[in-house]
Amino acid sequence: MTTTDDMQADIGEILLTEGQIQARVAELGAQVSADYAGRKLTLVSVLKGSLPFMADLMRSITLPLRIDLMEVSSYGGATTESSGLVRILKDLSSSIEGEDVLICEDIIDTGLTLNYLVRYLGGKKPHSLRICTLLDKPARRLVEIPVDYTGFTIPDQFVVGYGLDYGEHYRNLRFVGVLKPEVYADPG
């Protein structure tokens, strides 16, 4: 990994500006609020990348809700490819049985991790289980995932920012940008 001290210098293109993201998250929050009117909702954030998205989304939802966190991994270290092997690093802290659950995801790529997570959480007997993702990258999909709420559909490029990382860097960028290939290219 050859990141520079100037994170923005590692970005080849800004794909989504902070303003675009905030406007779309507000729209998603209004849609979720309307769809779940009169019901209590549990948001489940898939750590670490979706934390900024869920934080902004929950502030845009105007109904009672609770949150829970899971950490799931299918990537190993500083890599741009999913290993396909899914591990739960942190499970839910409360039961979701009988609850309306909305999984908040930062990006859906191959769909392998989310497919596993949907089956796993479905086994916990929620009343309903739906998916809200900030970014959808359908060109990489290996399994079909029924996404209920999508912020943006993006091309098959390696993106960072707004929670998305490469080697645990770039999460704090306020926009979503395309990482320059030389930053993650294998030097050997």
Would you kindly provide a brief summary of this structure?
With 188 residues, the chain is α/β, with parallel strands linked by helices.
Describe the structure.
There is one protein chain. The protein is an alpha/beta fold. It has a domain at about 20-75 and about 85-155: Rossmann fold. Helices cover about 25% and strands about 30% of the residues. It is built from 4 helices and 9 strands. The protein has helices spanning about 20-35, 50-60, 110-120, 180-185; strands spanning about 10-15, 40-45, 65-75, 85-90, 100-110, 130-135, 150-155, 160, 175-180. It has a 6-stranded mixed beta sheet, with helices on both faces. It has a 3-stranded antiparallel beta sheet with strand order 1-9-8. Strand 2, helix 2 and strand 3 (about 65-75) form a beta-alpha-beta unit. Helix 1 (about 20-35) crosses helix 2 (about 50-60). The longest helix is centred in the first third of the chain and has 18 residues, at about 20-35. It is globular and about 50 Å long. The mean pLDDT is about 90.
Given the C-alpha coordinates, what overall shape results?
globular
Average predicted local confidence, pLDDT:
91
Give the low-pLDDT segments.
none
CATH topology of one domain: Rossmann fold
| Spatial gap, N to C terminus | 12 Å
**How many H/I helical runs?**
4
Q: What's the helix-strand series?
A: EHEHEEEHEEEEH
Main sheet strand line-up: 4-3-2-5-6-7
Name the assembly state: single chain
Major sheet size, sense and barrel closure: 6 strands, mixed
- CATH architecture label name of one domain: 3-Layer(aba) Sandwich
- Number of separate strands: 9
Beta-strand portion reads: 25-35%
Class by alpha and beta content: alpha/beta
**What's the level 1 CATH class of one domain?**
Alpha Beta
Share of helix, binned: 10-25%
**Using only CA atoms, what is the Rg?**
16 Å
